[in-house]
Design goal:
heterodimer; A: 97 residues; mainly alpha; 3 helices; 75% helix; 0% strand; B: 146 residues; 2 domains; elongated
Chain lengths: 97, 146
């Protein structure tokens, strides 16, 4: 148990540092990068919580969060490049279609 | 006797994995805060995503025994191993296409090479606005092949 508490402490420190970059980041891409790292750290925090409370159901939430994190990063990048999410990536129509 | 020895070995392995993983996490987070520009912060983010997270997940696997939780941890580790470098690559590709360059760049050699990049590397460049530094002849030829 002491192993998980120590790991959680280090993880929370890392999350706070990444949050500082998320707040300070001078550019959009710095923020997206920090957000992606913060999502990875959140997956690890969910795993730690599952072990600390001895409820392995938290691993399901961690698995789902890993999926959502990846899709969310790609969605944010696509939105800020094309200013729209609905257009299919394989469309040949150009930006005005 | 034998089982307690196995538990001790698993605890030691978990401790080593958590120590190294937390070290990588802290190094990556510190690098994300302290490194000077975006292209160097990418390296620190890569350290967090692959080294830190994977080693910590392997350390958690030693604590579950053979269980359904081990399978879930393996799935999470596999998923992070695939998606995190992909997301980092997508962020860096978007920043590169948007025109972000390293801080102390003396001479931007990518102004010529960006128009020579095959359209497979920047697949939707023909959809970008005209202000992008893309060669119009290349993008028109790329539309036919894509």
């Amino acid at each position: 148990m002491i192993l998980f508490i120590a790991g959680t402490a280090a993880l929370v420190v890392a999350m706070l540092l990444v949050l500082a970059r998320l707040y300070l980041g001078p550019d959009l891409y710095d923020r997206v990068l920090a957000l992606n790292s913060f999502g990875t750290l959140t997956v690890l925090l969910l795993g730690y919580i599952g072990f600390l409370t001895e409820r392995p159901d938290f691993l399901d939430i961690a698995l789902l969060y890993a999926l959502i994190n990846f899709v969310g990063t790609i969605a944010v990048l696509k939105f800020f490049r094309y200013r729209a999410l609905g257009r299919g990536l394989g469309s040949q129509d150009g930006p005005e279609a | 006797m034998d089982m307690s020895l196995l538990d001790l070995a698993c605890n030691i392995a978990t401790g080593i994995a958590f120590a190294t993983g937390s070290f990588f996490l802290l190094v990556g987070a510190f690098g994300i805060v302290r490194l000077p520009d975006f292209w160097s912060r990418l390296h620190a983010a890569g350290v967090i995503d692959t080294a830190g997270a994977e080693i910590i997940l392997i350390g958690m696997m030693f604590q579950t025994g053979w269980d359904i939780a081990t399978l879930k941890l393996i799935l999470i580790a596999f998923l992070l191993f695939i998606t995190s470098p992909t997301a980092t690559h997508a962020v860096s590709n978007a920043a590169f296409v948007a025109g972000l360059r390293p801080q102390d760049l003396k001479k931007d050699e990518t102004e010529q090479t960006l128009s020579d990049v095959p359209t497979a590397a920047i697949p939707y460049r023909s959809m970008l606005p005209e202000s992008e530094p893309a060669a119009p002849s290349k993008s028109s030829s790329g539309e036919g092949s894509a």
